[in-house]
Amino acid sequence: MNFFTDLPEKYLPLVKELQPGELEKQLIPLNANMWKIENYEEFLKERRALIAKAINQLIEELPFEETKTVQIEELLQRNEDQTLEFKATLRYDLITHNVNKELEKACLKEVCGFMNADGGTVLVGVSDDKKIEGLERDYKTLPKNNWDGFQNHLINLIESKIGNFFQKFILYEFPKLEGKEICQITVFHSTEPAYYEKGLNQQFFVRFGNSTRELSVEEANKYIQERWNQK
Q: Where do the domains of the chain lie?
């Protein structure tokens, strides 16, 4: 059996049998009907629900002081620092007026950096000079033009670029400022190292002061060993 070419309905039963609990860990729906290619949309809907449930469960299990999100007014009185980053948009390029996936990477880089440090908040829809840009331009680039479509897109980005395991360390809120919705992404420190991208293109980011930096392989290995006691 080849996991790279076989259909999910063929290889997922084998994963379930040979690696008990692995599907649950990866938040894969256990209803075998959803593993069929014709039920892919239903599979995605159910998986999003499982991811949301896992996030809410983590929040309930953490101490209240740690999970309480900082009030938006308080955040806007601060400058970017060890636990705060502003992003004017998620994917809409204010210069070219087109979708720019490098902007998405920049946002996910901050998420990784916070998870690998002490947690923090990314405010999307707020520029570096604290101007409230809102999310309307980002919304228009998505199939579903509202906060729900925006959140689903972020969840999908996290899944493809960082991994579903890390969804539980992220909380999304959509407060309104000056009549505009922004996205407040609260990131908790992770119990495992978080990498951007998979395979040979892995990058390891850590938040230092008011910037997020990529560590070399040697630096990352040392940091991971010291922080998580991993070699």
A: 1-61, 70-228
